[in-house]
Design brief:
Layout: H1 4-19, E1 22-23, H2 24-31, H3 35-44, E2 49-52, E3 59-62, E4 73-78, E5 84-92, E6 98-99, E7 119-120, H4 134-148, H5 159-169, E8 177-179, H6 181-192, H7 203-216, E9 230-234, E10 244-249, H8 256-275, E11 286-291, E12 294-300, E13 304-305, E14 309-310, E15 314-315, H9 316-324, H10 331-340, H11 346-361, E16 373-377, E17 380-383, H12 417-436, H13 442-462
Antiparallel strand pairs: 1-3, 2-3, 4-5, 4-8, 5-6, 6-7, 9-10, 10-12, 11-12, 13-14, 15-16, 16-17
Helix pairs in contact: 2-3, 5-6, 8-12, 9-10, 10-11, 11-12, 12-13
Family: Belongs to the HipA Ser/Thr kinase family.
InterPro entries: HipA-like_C, HipA_Ser/Thr_kinase
Domain HipA-like C-terminal: 222-415
Length: 464
């Protein structure tokens, strides 16, 4: 017959598995014990108990094995000089969630009495933007689906799937975090034996080859679903901050659909150049290359510094979910919410207002929350360079047909007058630049010219 002590230990394990993370007082109440008796049980148990928190905020949970792996996952950050630093460690817990204390790091945190001191209902929010996603994420999932026993579609992965993939093959993902020893060892190996940096003479051959390899995978969701296929590369760039680039590319045939995607790549390049003149707005350096019928847009990565240095990055989508909890809305609206919580400087809010209006005035219909990013610094956020800024309203429809777009740019409210006027001047200059660029089709150049004329007409009404 079991002793009362054995029964108490069993009940403790059941309570931890059900209610964790839990305070000692709550566990004692659930078990009908005094707090001192509960503490003795916790010291005696052979269960893998995790205790974290300071003083009365201490909570307890049972560690949870991830695919047979019970040990915590170390999380390391790579700095701009390419040096690794131990940041924290992540422990999955029962029944769900994890513990990973980001306190004292650059990452802004909510000090919520319900989940203080590193307890998370899912994964820590700094990990969500480094998870494989989009076209590059599908490439990675396609490559490792059998090895890591995950779905080929990363959008369907659970938090456990994400954590497992990050810990095994996450050595070169967005931002500067590396989760787990296996991924870190792969990073160390790459540093000891760095990959080849492409010289100018190699670019055409290697970019065409990389595009053909990406297309040969047959991944769903490329340009037909409003997303450019892409690959990453290392290339020798004089006077650049980093050789790391992301390369988007068009198809190689002469169809009207492929021509429009080519137009939009050039248009994106020109939009980034124009937007860099807006107050407080930075854009990454980039260039257009055209080889063997394809148009390539090469953009330098702002989360990379030199060959090995990195910096953290987080999107507005993740920041909103973790720190604001607002319904999705316009970039400038959510930026104001971040400023009210003292997470974002007023100058950054102003810059986001400029870029929000600029995007609207150049028909960017794809300004979702994942297309604006920040860098965490000292518990606050700084605005990253702008990316994916282009007139996506003119992107081909899923069946390949070109859309019929009525250009009807929004007019400002009185309080937005000054920002709108400045953004409108930039948008007029942008449409004129597009209209003058001979790399763009005559059809889209006419559209650009007409749009610039329409904006001039509206500007005259607002600022005669």
């Amino acid at each position: 017959m079991r002793s009362k002590r054995q029964a108490a230990h069993q009940q403790l394990g059941l309570a931890l598995a059900k209610f964790a993370p839990a305070r000692a007082a709550d566990l004692a109440r659930e078990l009908g014990l005094s707090v001192p008796t509960l503490h003795r049980l916790l010291q005696e148990t052979t269960e893998p108990v995790l205790a974290a928190g300071r003083a009365r905020r201490t909570r307890y949970a049972l560690r949870r094995a991830l695919r047979g792996h019970l040990a915590p996952f170390p999380i390391r950050a790579i700095d701009e000089a390419g040096q690794p630093h131990e940041l924290t460690e992540l422990s999955p817990i029962q029944p769900q969630g994890c513990h990973a204390d980001f306190g004292g790091s650059d990452w802004p945190l909510e000090d919520d009495d319900q989940t203080p001191d590193g307890w998370w209902d899912g994964l820590p929010y700094p990990l969500y933007d480094i998870r494989p996603q989009g076209y590059l994420g599908r490439q990675l999932a396609h490559r490792f689906q059998d090895t890591l026993a995950v779905s080929p579609n990363p959008d369907t992965w659970s938090d456990d799937d994400i954590l497992w993939v990050l810990s095994r093959v996450g050595s070169d993902l967005p931002g500067n975090l590396i989760v787990g020893d296996a991924a870190f060892q792969a990073w160390q190996k790459a540093r000891l034996d760095p990959p080849l940096i492409l010289k100018a003479d190699d670019i055409e051959r290697m970019y065409v080859k990389a595009a053909e390899e990406a297309i040969s995978l047959g991944l769903a969701g490329s340009s037909a679903a409003g997303e450019f296929p892409k690959f990453t590369a290392l290339r020798d760039l004089r006077d650049s901050n980093t050789p790391h680039v992301i390369v988007k590319f068009s198809g190689a045939d002469d169809s009207t659909t492929v021509q429009r995607w080519s137009d939009l790549l050039v248009a994106e390049h020109l939009a980034l150049q124009t937007a860099s003149a807006l107050p407080g707005v930075q854009t990454p350096p980039g260039r257009i290359l055209q080889h063997q019928g394809r148009t390539f847009l090469e953009v330098e990565r702002f989360d990379r510094h030199g060959l090995f240095g990195r910096s953290p990055v987080v999107t507005l989508e993740t920041v909103n979910a973790a720190l604001l909890g607002h319904a999705p809305s316009a970039w400038d609206t959510l930026a104001q919410g971040l400023a009210e919580k003292r997470l974002l400087a007023p100058e950054a809010v102003t810059a986001i207002r400029y870029i929000t209006w600029f995007g609207r005035l150049i028909s960017n219909s794809d300004m979702h929350l994942g297309n604006l990013a920040f860098r965490p610094e000292d518990g606050r956020l700084t605005l990253c360079p702008i990316y994916d800024m282009l007139p996506m309203a003119y992107a081909p429809l899923p069946g390949g047909e070109l859309p019929r777009v009525t250009f009807d740019p929004a007019m400002p409210l009185p309080r937005e007058h000054g920002v709108w006027v400045a953004a409108c001047h930039a948008a007029i200059a942008y449409w004129q630049t597009v209209a003058d660029d001979t790399r763009i089709s005559s059809m889209f150049r006419r559209i650009a010219s007409d749009n610039g004329t329409e904006l001039q007409r509206r500007l005259a009404l607002v600022a005669p």
